[in-house]
Amino acid sequence: MPEVPDPRVIDNADGSKTIISFKIEGGKKLKVTQRVKEIKITEKVNKSIAARRKWAKYGAEANSPPGPNLSTTKLGEELHLKLAPSLKELKAQEAKEKEKVKQEGEKSLYMCRTCGMPGHFTSKCPFKEMLGESGSTEEREAPADVATESSAAPMATTPGKYVPPSRRAGGRDPSSDAYKDQRERDDAMTLKITQLNENADEMTIKQKLLTPFQTIPRVAVVRNKETGRSRGIAYVTFSSEHEAETALRLLDGRGFMNLILHAEWSKPKK
């Protein structure tokens, strides 16, 4: 068998090294040339970890280099410790959230239990949009001379005390003629749709059922106040009475999501 010379290491000008070695394969001597470059990697570790690495090993590992020896050491699963925030951070976060709620005011402090929409109470639902906290846009723009004495003189309130919408600043008396006229106009353009599939929400009704109608001011699905699931009833307000009549003819008796719909006026016509 031919003699195999010792490997040679040659330092190159670019900092790399060329390693020349020989080996015997199939009765032939083969020359193997490798070019390697050493890279220094600096790793930052905790001081306590660095101190433990300097501990002297004992027994069978007395002369082993630093670090675990897989032949004698079994490594467990790596666990990441996530510490909870300190009490000071929790108090600062709580104060920040309270300030945010204070700035938002009362706009999101109450929600209708029937339709699940914020800004109005259950007694004013499901399709009387104008009975919200501060009235509809048309109410706010109505002339002041049609307001009654009750709406013109809002009651002084104390913080945290419930005040009916008609007694708030800018509120309108539900018994006034202007208020009744607005309600009658909304009723004339609103349909009540029953026998809806429970999975049909406001967006589904707008995009799939009411596609022929471009402008739909409001769609309200009546929901169970405890479970939040649809009760199969929805109130739809159209932009005009003519569109509402057209929708009544198209929707009544139509099949939608495996059910036959029934459409009628939200309030019987006189």
From TrEMBL:
GO terms for molecular function: RNA binding; translation initiation factor activity; zinc ion binding. The keyword Cytoplasm applies. One of its GO terms (cellular component) is eukaryotic 48S preinitiation complex. Keywords: Cytoplasm, Initiation factor, Metal-binding, Phosphoprotein, Protein biosynthesis, RNA-binding, Zinc, Zinc-finger. Pfam families: eIF3g (PF12353), RRM_1 (PF00076). Transmembrane segments: none annotated. The keyword Cytoplasm applies. Residues 132-185 are annotated as: Disordered. Residues 112-126 form the CCHC-type domain. It comes from the Eukaryota. Residues 189-268 form the RRM domain. Residues 132-143, 170-185 have a biased composition (Basic and acidic residues). GO terms for biological process: formation of cytoplasmic translation initiation complex; translation reinitiation; translational termination. SMART domains: RRM (SM00360). It is found in: Cytoplasm. PROSITE patterns: RRM (PS50102), ZF_CCHC (PS50158). RNA-binding component of the eukaryotic translation initiation factor 3 (eIF-3) complex, which is involved in protein synthesis of a specialized repertoire of mRNAs and, together with other initiation factors, stimulates binding of mRNA and methionyl-tRNAi to the 40S ribosome. The eIF-3 complex specifically targets and initiates translation of a subset of mRNAs involved in cell proliferation. This subunit can bind 18S rRNA. Belongs to the eIF-3 subunit G family. Component of the eukaryotic translation initiation factor 3 (eIF-3) complex. This is Eukaryotic translation initiation factor 3 subunit G.
